[in-house]
């Protein structure tokens, strides 16, 4: 695909037509590319567990997170409702000396490690599978493709493509680096791993490691390495179930067109039906994969079944 940087509309329309999965799984589909992740693929993923070592791929959910308030996205606010002090002072009113603690959290659903649901992005008023956006997501939430539908299914064969290590310097890609199909394929070849139907693909850029070292800065919404718009065909052709990155926005920023905002999202979610993960912590897993040379594993990453949500926090676990 050749990019005309002055005409995002035409490129998006072309990619949307070529990569469309509308109707592929019927008019009532609510899972998109998760349909590729079937029982056989889960058995394949489960068989990859050899050592029993596990890795959390989630950032922490706390006030020290990356959000700066853009689009009203804030870091989580954690508040205690009952504490040990209340118990010690006898303020809780429980019998025979028992006490307890309770807490509450307030946060945007996409403030840290998360999935973008199928109701998150529209293209010219159309949601996933060609539905009218205004009939899918209302003030009551996503009435059709709420992320709760995906909760039972996101578990299977995970594949790490550590593009930062293979293509970058010192294990990291610079901000603004567009990851093209050739980079993804070269990384898969270097790792001696195949990527295909039903896989849960993780792409490490190294940006999160840099943010942890140098400070959050503009990690949330600023320049970043990420997938090039030209990878839309690869995302469609490989029939992967999902793709997650260690960056805020999945695709390269600044975007590759003038006067554009997240054009790959505009194709990947409403047209391909792709489940997209962002702000995943891939560092410990990547270190282990580099050490033992194994870049495939069992991965479970169920979204919280929040009725009508267009995104969800997630605590992914990779097991090797």
From TrEMBL:
Top-level taxon of the source organism: Bacteria
Record-linked InterPro entries: KFase/CYL, KFase_sf
Any one Pfam family match given in the protein's UniProt record, by short name: Cyclase
SUPFAM superfamilies (UniProt xref): Putative cyclase (SSF102198)
Regions crossing the membrane: none
Name used for this protein in its record: Cyclase family protein
Species the sequence originates in: Streptomyces luomodiensis
């Amino acid at each position: 695909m050749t990019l005309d940087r002055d005409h995002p509309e035409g490129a998006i329309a072309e990619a949307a037509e070529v990569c469309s999965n509308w109707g592929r799984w019927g008019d009532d589909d609510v899972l998109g590319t998760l349909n590729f992740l079937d029982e056989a693929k889960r058995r394949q993923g489960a068989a990859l567990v050899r050592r029993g070592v596990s890795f959390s791929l989630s950032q922490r959910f706390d006030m020290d997170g990356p959000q700066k308030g853009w689009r009203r996205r804030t870091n989580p606010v954690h508040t205690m409702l009952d504490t040990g002090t209340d118990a010690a002072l006898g303020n809780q009113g429980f019998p025979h000396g028992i006490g307890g603690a309770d807490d509450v959290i307030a946060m945007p659903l996409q403030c840290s490690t998360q999935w973008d649901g199928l109701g998150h992005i529209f293209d010219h008023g159309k949601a996933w599978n060609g539905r009218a956006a205004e009939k899918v997501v209302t003030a009551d939430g996503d009435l059709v493709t709420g992320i709760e539908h995906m909760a039972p299914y996101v578990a299977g064969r995970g594949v790490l493509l550590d593009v930062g290590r293979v293509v970058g310097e010192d294990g990291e890609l610079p901000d603004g680096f567009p990851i093209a199909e050739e980079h993804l394929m070269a990384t898969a070849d270097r790792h001696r791993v195949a990527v295909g139907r039903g896989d849960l693909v993780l792409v490490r850029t190294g940006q999160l490691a840099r943010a942890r070292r140098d400070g959050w800065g503009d990690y949330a919404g600023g320049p970043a390495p990420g997938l090039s718009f030209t990878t839309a065909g690869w995302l469609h052709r490989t029939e992967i179930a999902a793709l997650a990155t260690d960056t805020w926005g999945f695709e390269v920023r600044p975007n590759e067109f003038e006067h554009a905002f997240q054009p790959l999202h505009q194709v990947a979610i409403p047209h391909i039906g792709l489940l997209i993960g962002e702000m995943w912590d891939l560092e410990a897993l990547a270190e282990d994969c580099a050490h033992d040379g194994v870049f495939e594993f069992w991965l479970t990453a169920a979204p919280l079944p929040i009725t009508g949500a267009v995104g969800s926090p997630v605590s992914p676990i990779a097991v090797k």
